[in-house]
Structures are given as C-alpha cells and as structure tokens.
UniProtKB/TrEMBL annotation, chain A:
NCBIfam families for this protein: sigpep_I_arch (TIGR02228)
Source organism of the structure: Coprinellus micaceus
CDD domains in alphabetical order: S26_SPase_I
Taxonomic lineage of the native organism: Eukaryota, Fungi, Dikarya, Basidiomycota, Agaricomycotina
UniProt keyword Membrane present: yes
Protein name per its UniProtKB record: Signal peptidase complex catalytic subunit SEC11
Annotated membrane topology: Single-pass type II membrane protein
Gene Ontology terms: cellular component: signal peptidase complex
Location relative to the cell: Endoplasmic reticulum membrane
Documented EC number(s): 3.4.21.89
Group of enzyme by EC: hydrolase
Domain Peptidase S26: 26-98
Automatic annotation (TrEMBL), chain B:
GO terms under cellular component: signal peptidase complex
Predominant localisation class: endoplasmic reticulum
A Gene Ontology BP annotation from the UniProt entry: protein targeting to ER
Residue ranges the record marks as coiled coil: none
Membrane found in the keyword field: yes
Role this protein plays: Component of the signal peptidase complex (SPC) which catalyzes the cleavage of N-terminal signal sequences from nascent proteins as they are translocated into the lumen of the endoplasmic reticulum. Enhances the enzymatic activity of SPC and facilitates the interactions between different components of the translocation site.
Membrane topology: Multi-pass membrane protein
Protein name (Swiss-Prot/TrEMBL): Signal peptidase complex subunit 2
Pfam families: SPC25
Length: 201, 245
C-alpha cells in the first residue's frame, strides 16, 4: 500500500512533500496564532470560557460560551458579570458584581484585604495603580441566595488581580460540546480524529 | 546512440522551415530574432517513450484539478533531461517563509503555555507580530512576484559557444467568453536566449496560446498527454524562434 506512495513522493521530490506538509501545518498554526492574538487583544488568559453551573440563571445558563475581556483600563461597575479565580480554587467562577469600591492610589489597599495569602493579589493590584484607582469588588450569583463571601476563601473583597475578565457576550448551548468532551474521553478522541480526517480529505 | 542521430536529423530537417519563418519573424518582432543555425533543441524534437507515461485522470468538472493537471504536465514535459532545468526560486522562498512562520508560531505557543500569562505577554506579542509579518510577506510574494508563473526553466547548451536559455511559463483559466461552453487553458511564455554569461542577447520570444480543456480531456477525465505536449511544444518552439505573438 505504501509502495505506491513512496514512488509518487520520490518522483515529485522533497519540495513537493515539504509544500504538502506546510499547507497542513499552517492551518494549525493559524488557529493557534488567532487564539493567542485574541488572548493578547483582550488581555485575558482565557478569552473564551464555558459555564458549568446554574448559579447565574436566567441570565446565563449552563453550557453557554462566554467571551471575556480584561483590558488594563477597565473599570468594573455594579451589574457587570465577571469571571474570577480565587488563588487555591480549582475553577473560575462567573457571577455578577453587586458592590464596588474604588480605592484611590493614595490609600494603601492592604488595609482592606486581610489575609497573607492575598499578597499575590495585592502585587497585581499595585501594578494597576498606573491605571487609576484600584477596585474592591463583591460578587453574587443571580440564582444564589447569598453573596460570594463564602467562596472567597477568607478574602473580604475581590481585587482586579483576581478577575479573569468581564463578560462581553455569549453564545448559548455551544459550550455543551466542551462539557461532553471533558466528560468522556472517548468522545474527545472521536471528535479530534474526525477533525483530522476532515483536514486530510 | 540511435536516438541522438534521429534527433539531429529532425533538427536539421526543421532548419529550413525555421529560417523561412525567421524572415517573417524579423519583420513582425522588434526584438532580435535568434539565429536559426544556433537554435538549440526544441521540446518537440525530444520524444518520450510511451511506456514511461503514467495515466493522468482527473475530475473533469473541477476547474482547479484540470488546471493543475495541465500545469503538472507542462512541468514534466519541459523538465526532461534534454530540456530545461526547473528553477525553484519561487518555491524555495515560499517554503522558507512558510516554515519560518510555522516555527515562530510553535515557539510562541510553547512559550505562552510554559510561562504564566502576565509575564509571557511581551514575548507572545513579539511572536505574534513576527508571525503576521512573515505570513503577509509570503502572501504578497506569492501574489505579486510569483503571480501566475508555473514554470521557470534554464538551460545551457554548447554549440560554438555556451548558450544560456531562460524560459518562464505562466498559466491561467480565464473566465468563459460568451460564445463557448467550455473553459480554456491559457498559457503565456517568455523566452530569452543569451550568451557570454548573459551579456550578449541572442534572441527573445514571447508567445501566448489558449485551448479549450475539452481538447485534452475526454469524458472520463483522462488526459491526452501526447496531444497536450504537442500543443505546448509548438508554442515553446515558436517562442524559441522569436515570434512575438
């Protein structure tokens, strides 16, 4: 079976082979670079996320795909839906900002953030001093009875450094593909295999 | 041995007719007409034994496949040992730019994966900009510099003095004119013959030709290679004779 292929490649030469492989690989790298471009443009580690819980019903449902941005000059307002990550927690959480305090740079923000663990957070908070007052936020899920203080693992307020990004838009139901793929590894390989076949054929 | 004798006989046989057409060629063309006695082998003089051919079969409803089959046939036809040697400059530049951009992208992605986001941002931005520049350069090169070119060939022959020839072919499938129902394959050639290390111009020719695809492909999509080669060979030889068409 491969003898034929080898004959063809020997006749057509190394350049032809390199060109074919290049066209395959360059579509991969284009996707990769587009993703990184989005990361840099939105200043966000993970510009597209999938919602796993129902704590924001009816605004955002489980399985929605969210588009985030986290520009350095962003001032978060009450009512914004943000995705944040507490250091030490596994997954990011998406909830709404219900309380916001702008702390001018003349005041040391550390008075308001109690725990030593938060020092990483304050480090990032102080770098945002360049962009004006730092912010202290409190969030709550729309569908939750109480605010998120329990989830903060000892923190009293959220700071900008904890925030992954603000939600700018969403696509419903699309996230279920990702949820399903993460659930059963068989499906993951089936989808990847299908994509590879599509590119080759 | 026998084959070379046959080839020389054919070449000598074609001399009087080419010198005749040379006369009219000189009147029509402004560029110097090549000297008939100096003319190296044309492609029609070099035959290909039938058993060496592989059948070419394409989907004759797909215009891209038809054009690519014709382009490949031209490349095979003109790269035979007695004829031109294909120059790979365009291909090499596209390959170099393409593979460089792939490595830049892979390196940037790997770095972004290993290093934490905030720290990695400057390097990732540089990598991204570099990738965009390389891809843009490659696309612009392919569009403007390479354009429609499908074959660039060079040949050095020795008869009295070293003659260098350079031929460039470009092809396209122009849009359908109103009166025909079949798309056609249009090829244009540029031919230069010089000696003395490229300093003395011996001759120059420029030809274009167009033929309908249905002339070379039957209903099943099998390509009539000898017929196609005869048509292209005729065009090449008329360019070598200096006709500016």
């Amino acid at each position: 079976m491969f003898a034929d292929e080898f004959k063809v490649f020997k006749r057509l030469g190394l350049r032809h082979l390199l060109l074919q492989v290049l066209s395959l690989v360059s579509s991969l790298t284009l996707a990769l670079m587009l993703w990184h471009g989005l990361m840099i443009a939105t200043n966000c580690e993970s510009p597209v996320v999938v919602v796993l819980s129902e704590s924001m019903e009816p605004a955002i449902s489980r399985g929605d795909l969210l588009f985030l941005s986290n520009l350095a000059s962003e001032r978060y307002k009450t009512g914004d839906i943000v995705v944040y990550k507490i250091p030490g927690a596994d997954t990011p959480i998406v909830h709404r900002v219900i309380e916001r305090h702008d702390v001018p740079s003349t005041v040391d923000i550390r008075q308001y953030t109690k725990f030593a663990k938060v020092s990483k957070g304050t480090g990032r908070g102080s770098s945002s001093k360049l962009c004006g007052p730092s912010q202290l936020l409190l969030t709550k899920g729309d569908n939750n009875p109480v605010d998120d203080t329990e989830l903060y693992r000892g923190l009293e307020w959220l700071e900008k450094g904890h925030i992954v990004g603000k939600v700018n838009g969403f696509l419903p139901y699309v996230g279920y593909v990702s949820i399903a793929m993460n659930g059963s590894s068989g499906l993951k390989y089936a989808v990847l295999g299908g994509l590879c076949l599509m590119v080759l054929l | 041995m026998a084959r070379t004798k046959q080839v020389n006989a054919q070449n000598n046989g074609s001399q009087p007719s080419s010198s005749k057409s040379n006369g009219t060629g000189v009147e029509k063309a402004r560029s110097p007409s090549p000297d008939a006695s100096d003319r190296p082998l044309g492609p029609l003089s070099v035959t290909v034994p039938a058993y060496e051919r592989e059948e070419v079969k394409v989907n004759n409803a797909n215009l891209t496949e038809l054009k690519n089959a014709c382009d490949d046939a031209v490349k095979r036809f003109l790269s035979r040992p007695e004829l031109f040697k294909q120059q790979y400059l365009h291909t090499d530049i596209r390959l170099a730019l393409g593979w460089l951009s792939v490595f830049v992208a892979a390196g940037t992605a790997f770095y972004g994966y290993k290093v934490e986001f905030e720290q990695s941002k400057p390097v990732v931005t540089i990598g991204l900009v570099l990738y965009i520049i390389l891809t843009t350069l490659s696309t612009l090169y392919a569009y403007f510099v390479e354009g429609d070119t499908i074959f660039v060939g060079k040949r050095k022959t020795f008869s009295k003095r070293i003659i260098t020839e350079r031929i460039t072919l470009s092809s396209s499938s122009p849009p359908l004119p109103k009166n025909t129902s079949c798309p056609s394959y249009s090829v244009s050639l540029q031919y230069v013959r010089s000696t003395n290390g490229g300093k003395t111009l011996l001759g120059r020719g420029r030809t274009t030709g167009a033929a309908e695809y249905s002339r070379f492909f039957d209903e099943a999509g099998v390509m009539d290679q000898p017929g196609f080669e005869k048509w292209v060979g005729g065009l090449v030889e008329s360019a070598m004779d200096g006709k500016a068409a």
